[in-house]
């Protein structure tokens, strides 16, 4: 009798569990997932990123990355009609005004919609599902490439009119705010070794594939956050603050294969084989399935480099 009772309890538990999974499956919306966006904003095409997922069985929430700033939480994505949706987010670095309001629709597997900006202007945008990026187990590496030759900026170009980058005594430096510096060559999966230095209070960053910013900022002694040195800006925070004082040379050793990244700061592994969800603010584009360049941020504070070595995955 006891055995039969236990079997009955197990059967009922399995039924309840199965019913719960069925309920969740029934509430999964075709809007859910990560989306790479392109937005026609202020006369140019800017990359953005959107994540929509369910919370509980009936509520949709998410995150949004604009052309600048960090990933912003979406408290609720409201749906209506056939795969139409709307949400709003408060301004971050934008001019003061109203919240940013988004309207979108899923048609033929793609998103299309509008954004009402903080000043009331309207921008059109489109989106495609972010691709699955292949992760290679036990990757075999090719020969290291000295991307910075220690003499000049051959193999690099700026993304603006002002070129403040100079090379002196084997050191590449941006002494003042100006243009970002971008490699001519594009890379897919790689290991990166850089040696860098910044003055007190400065702020910069390195964009992997031109899309994912590894933060560089004077943050010694602060609690580890994704917006501080060692973090993937707005997404992944380091497990400890391994920063040295401003004015000292520091090192990054970064491995990126697919979406999985490992960050070693000054010899300490601060992010270990973690997944980067999507592009970060300031990305060059949102074409995540394609190789991309390295971009050094030069539009913030002063920064110096004396080594920039890339070891690509062997083809």
UniProtKB/TrEMBL annotation:
<dbReference type="InterPro" id="IPR010496">
    <property type="entry name" value="AL/BT2_dom"/>
</dbReference>
<dbReference type="Pfam" id="PF06439">
    <property type="entry name" value="3keto-disac_hyd"/>
</dbReference>
<keyword id="KW-0732">Signal</keyword>
<feature type="domain" description="3-keto-alpha-glucoside-1,2-lyase/3-keto-2-hydroxy-glucal hydratase">
    <location>
        <begin position="144"/>
        <end position="309"/>
    </location>
</feature>
<feature type="signal peptide">
    <location>
        <begin position="1"/>
        <end position="25"/>
    </location>
</feature>
<protein>
    <submittedName>
        <fullName>DUF1080 domain-containing protein</fullName>
    </submittedName>
</protein>
